[in-house]
Every structure is written in C-alpha cells, then in structure tokens.
C-alpha cells in the first residue's frame, strides 16, 4: 500500500462533514489518482469549542463512501477503546501528532493488524518518533508508516516548520517507510491563504509538494476538497 520504491498520494478533507461532501471529495481525489482517502471522524482540536468531528456517524459515512467508490480509507483513532471500531471501517489507522506519545493507544493499534500512519509529535525528536513506532512494532504489527508533518519552532510564518531533513535521516535510522504531510507546514501567510482565496487546490501548497523529497519519501498525505466553501475543520489548509 505504501512502500519504499513507490509513490502514494493520500488525499481528502480534514474532517468528515456530510455524506454528500465526503462522497464528492472521495470521487474527486480518486479521479485525480490518489490511492487512499483521508478524512477524520474524530478530530482532536486545540480549542475545545472547535468542531470535534462527527464521531461514530463519521465512521458510518466513511464506510458508506468506501462501499460506493472502492477507495481505501485512512482515518485517525484517538483512544484505545475506539481502535476496534475504527479498524472495522478503515484500511489504515492514523495516529495524530498529539497522540504520538499515547502509549496505551500505540500498543492497541499494534494489536489491530491494520497499517498505521504514525505522525511525528509537534515537538518530538526523531528518536522519540522511532521509540513510539517501537511500541506498535513490539505488539506484532510490522506495517508502520512514519509521517513527517512539521514541528513547532520559534518561526510561526507557516504555522509549523516542515522538517524535510528528517526524511533522509529517518531513512538512515530505520527500515520503515517515511511519508511527508505538507498541510501543517504551509498553514499561514501566502503559502496557504484562507478562504475565499480562489486557487483550489491551493497553488502554494502544490509548490511544497514539489519540494517533498519523493525519491526517499514514498507517500504524500494532504488535505484537499473540491468545495470552495469553508470546511468545518482546518479550512485554511484544505
């Protein structure tokens, strides 16, 4: 699905909102050549008043979209108790940046026998990322994909700093595939203008895709939508 030596695009909205919009987006990314469809049913948000996702209803929508289109689903799981439920409708489980050090969750996804995309914590070192992956691996799940999505630095112009140097470093340190998600490292300023900026998909984000070291990073997840109306979750980077 995601292996060294091939290049995989993972695309979709930040969050599941309605069946109609999710289906339209899945068809759009499938027609554009994406191999996997990413969308969140559960959304960990910094602000508790922000949209938190549809939860179980979002999982039902993702399952219906998969039946309709045949596209494989990537979605985030946030709690150990939700792993079995999420794995029932997802082809790939995602561990988000805020949960990279949620060790009970890492152990549980290690038992799920689903590929896992493990995102680097926003303030995590490469060693910490690799140790987090070990929690999954030691439970018997060898299908772990590391994801560089940007780290928090003193520079706020692009919200996060996309650490592309991590990719060749990780390739030296581990056999695990490494992918790059530019969405969070292009989240401010002209790199990702807020709606209603008319360029959809956003041209500056596309320029970051070209910067991604594809020879060493076999996959590229990104937030995308065919809609020009503001999304309920992270519309500034979609």
Keywords:
single chain, TIM Barrel, 8-stranded parallel beta sheet, 238 residues, alpha/beta, 7 helices
What does this structure look like?
This protein has an eight-stranded parallel β-sheet with strand order 7-6-5-4-3-2-1-8. It starts with 7 loop residues before the first strand and ends in a 15-residue tail after the last strand. It has 238 residues and is an alpha/beta fold. The chain is globular, with a radius of gyration of 16 Å. Residues 193-202 have low confidence and may be disordered. The protein has helices at 19-31, 56-69, 83-87, 103-110, 126-137, 166-173, 203-211, and strands spanning 8-12, 36-38, 72-76, 92-95, 116-119, 144-148, 178-180, 219-223. Strand 3, helix 3 and strand 4 (92-95) form a beta-alpha-beta unit. It has seven helices and eight strands; from the N terminus they run E-H-E-H-E-H-E-H-E-H-E-H-E-H-E. It has a domain at 79-237: Aldolase class I (TIM Barrel, Alpha-Beta Barrel), CATH 3.20.20.
């Amino acid at each position: 699905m995601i292996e060294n030596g091939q290049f995989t695009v993972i695309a979709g909205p930040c969050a599941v909102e309605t069946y109609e919009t999710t289906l339209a987006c899945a068809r759009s990314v499938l027609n554009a050549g994406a191999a996997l469809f990413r969308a969140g049913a559960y959304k960990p948000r910094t602000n508790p008043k922000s949209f938190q996702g549809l939860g179980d209803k979002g999982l039902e929508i993702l399952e219906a979209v998969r039946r309709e289109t045949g596209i494989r689903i990537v979605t985030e799981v946030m709690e150990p108790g939700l792993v079995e439920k999420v794995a029932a409708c997802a082809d790939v489980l995602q561990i988000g940046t805020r949960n990279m050090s949620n060790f009970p969750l890492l152990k549980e996804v290690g038992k799920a026998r689903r590929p896992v995309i493990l995102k680097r914590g926003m303030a995590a070192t490469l060693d910490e990322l690799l140790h987090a992956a070990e929690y999954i691996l030691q439970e018997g799940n060898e299908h772990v994909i590391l994801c560089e999505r940007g780290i928090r630095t003193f520079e706020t112009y692009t919200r996060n700093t996309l650490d592309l140097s991590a990719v060749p470093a990780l390739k030296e340190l581990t056999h695990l595939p490494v992918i790059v998600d530019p969405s969070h490292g292009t989240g401010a300023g002209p790199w990702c203008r807020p709606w209603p900026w008319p360029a959809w998909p956003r041209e500056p984000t596309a320029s970051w895709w070209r910067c991604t070291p594809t020879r060493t990073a076999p996959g590229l997840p990104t937030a995308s939508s065919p809609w020009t109306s503001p999304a309920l979750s992270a519309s500034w980077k979609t």
